[in-house]
Amino acid sequence: MNLVHKTARSVEAVSEELPNAPERAAPGARLTKQQQIVATARDIFFSKGFSATSMEAVAKAAGVGKATLYEFFPNKVELLRAIISVELDSRSENFTLAAASVGEMRLNLVKFGHSLIDLLLSPANIAIYRIISAETPRHPEFGRLFYQNGPARVIGHLARYFADLMEEGRLHYGNPTLLASQFIGIVRADMQTRSMLGVDDEALQRERSMVIESGVDAFMRAYAKTRAP
């Protein structure tokens, strides 16, 4: 493995294993009690907040006894860890890319940008970001767990794509992981911050395609060996 690909994979070397949690239920499948508890707690945490939700409220909403709830999750912290695990389990599935021509590279990066922004601006993602931001000062492992198994994995997918493009001679050589992080910053711009603060939601929807495409074009003007038209 050459240095470029080693660097691209370095971001994954620090990833922690996700805590044990129920597998995501298949669409239409009957939930197990554990999955039912996690799904119910997720909805309540996201709507009311972590601190404002009691274990008793989760048990009541999930239709289980407190003894059953505590059998699976001894406290609210462990329940939140399970929710984070389930949320992160499939988040990076839509971010796999393959090396392509420069023209296809632009199309791939635009698609990647839209998938990324769809995720970042989703109500569920905004809710979990708010919870983790609030709870990380008391439970630092939440922030570390979320970053290493969420954003860092997405960066890793993009870094491997950039490493392949560098090997193919379509992208200038550099640190692919740093390049991936910079690309995400360019296409994200201030959209996630505005969404988290509830600022100009309608304007965000109108502007998102323009922001993503202009970010991709700026990136390609700077780094693609064959300039984008």
Task: Provide structural commentary.
The chain is built from twelve helices and no strands. The protein has 229 residues and is mainly α. It folds into two domains: 148 residues, Tetracycline Repressor, domain 2, CATH 1.10.357; 56 residues, Orthogonal Bundle (Arc Repressor Mutant, subunit A), CATH 1.10.10.60. α5 packs parallel to α8, α9 crosses α10 and α10 runs antiparallel to α12. The longest helix is centred in the last third of the chain and has 23 residues. It is elongated. It starts with a helix and ends in a 6-residue tail after the last helix. About 2% of the residues have low confidence.
Quick recap:
This protein is an all-alpha fold and 229 residues long. The chain is 69% helix and 0% strand. The protein is elongated, with a radius of gyration of 20 Å.
CATH class of the largest domain: Mainly Alpha
Name the average pLDDT. Answer: 84
Rg, rounded, reads 20 Å
Count of separate structural domains = 2
**How many β-strand runs?**
0
Query: Could you give me the name of the CATH homologous superfamily of the largest domain?
Result: Tetracycline Repressor, domain 2
User: Could you say what the CATH architecture of the largest domain is?
Assistant: Orthogonal Bundle
How large is the share of residues in beta strands? under 5%
Query: Count of helical segments?
Result: 12
